From TrEMBL:
<dbReference type="InterPro" id="IPR043998">
    <property type="entry name" value="Put_Metallopep"/>
</dbReference>
<protein>
    <submittedName>
        <fullName>Metallopeptidase</fullName>
    </submittedName>
</protein>
<dbReference type="Pfam" id="PF18894">
    <property type="entry name" value="PhageMetallopep"/>
</dbReference>
<feature type="domain" description="Putative phage metallopeptidase">
    <location>
        <begin position="2"/>
        <end position="109"/>
    </location>
</feature>
Amino acid sequence: MKFELAPDVKKTAETVNLKLDLGLDLERVEFIRSFGSRSRAYARTLALPSQWRYILDSRKIYIVEVISEKFDRLTCEDRVYIVVHELMHIPNGMRGGLRNHSYAGFRRIRHLTRKVLSEQELC
């Protein structure tokens, strides 16, 4: 597999974070694009274990990875939906944990996506 930074995804995430007032410190999140993955997912959010952060002396806590083969083929609306979904996994406290799909915010993702798209020229 090959990885590269994904500044386009970061820009979308910054807009989502601002428009939805999620309150996330995106300086502590790295956005990457992977190539050659066999995953069925379009994207995934990973939490860097505290031991790794200590050893690497890193401020980064989370990684949002988009799978290029799937994510890049999506419409703009679907890409925003995926970014909103992945940011929902990150709790407000940003201490290294991840929210699971039972979090109430996941039931509102389609509504939140429409809100972001109606207020911003992302596409």
